[in-house]
User: What shape does this take?
Amino acid sequence: MYFALPQEYRTATNDELRERIVEAKNRLGSRLCILCHHYQRLELVPFADHLGDSYGLSKIAAAQKEVEYIVFCGVHFMAESADILTDANKKVYLPNPLAGCPMADMADMADVLEAWEHLQELGGAKTIMPISYMNTTAGLKAFTGRNGGVICTSSNASAALKYGLDRREKVFFFPDENLGWNTGLAYGLKPDEMAIWDFSKRGGGLPVEKIKHARIILWKGHCHVHTNFTAEHVHQVRAQYPGIKIVVHPECRPDVVALADANGSTSFIVDFCKKAPAGSMIAIGTEINLINRMAHDYPDKTIFELSGLTCPVCANMYRTTLNDLAYTLERIEDIKPVSVPDPQRGEALLALEKMLEL
Assistant: This one.
């Protein structure tokens, strides 16, 4: 996909862009709702009508009744989900259409369908519930809904796993193996009750007996940002700053999660920082834009990223700029919205509505 902003937006100063965004927002008024994910650039946050994680923003999108335009400052799967959860009178826009998700791309539809066909030998949907992380394409959300499964986010992964194992013998969880593994451990499963399906290998690289014994079959996928954090980072920070609190995202490696003081979704991390007493020192294992905003919002606390010299940035979240937002708002009547076609839309909606019920 090729995308280039007109020159007037590329050459405008930040002050000019801010003025144009404010003017466009005022013109659109109550017809417009801007959703902004926690990982977005700091300069975009003041223009958000709602700020949150993918789960919270999905609930907000679903609750919109009067607005006509929803502009989602995030990545593609988020805008797709917002389109699925809203009625046909709403139009959803992604300011930078190149903002994707490498983790979502790790779960290719053909690979998942091949794995599911293999799992038919164990009863398929009769015994196995697919649980798809929000970080997947609309096509895989539709696959999940079609087979009686549920979508989860890092906010409700534990509830989704309980939902699945209360109803079926096994869960097929994709695409993030770390979130699935950490959630399984928190649920009380033992490591030998979890198996990792390697889509690059025949039969997932798993013996049949291993699959039969497993309660969760985890897709071999990961977030490149969160896997940068290591147990060594935790040990180094604790040695350098005695008494420090460490909070990480559950997409981090299991050994990192085990060593942290707390782990949870981006909204959980925001709340953790908010509730920490003045003078606290907090190291965070997640995307750098959220960490920088926490340090900015709570100057009475020392907040920094866990991995030290590295910069855990999500390049796709970082794609959206003031330039993109100004262009989208000023040209909104002319830009093509994000649109998920039927029957994919209806099937994905089944799984997303279960997510919201949880």
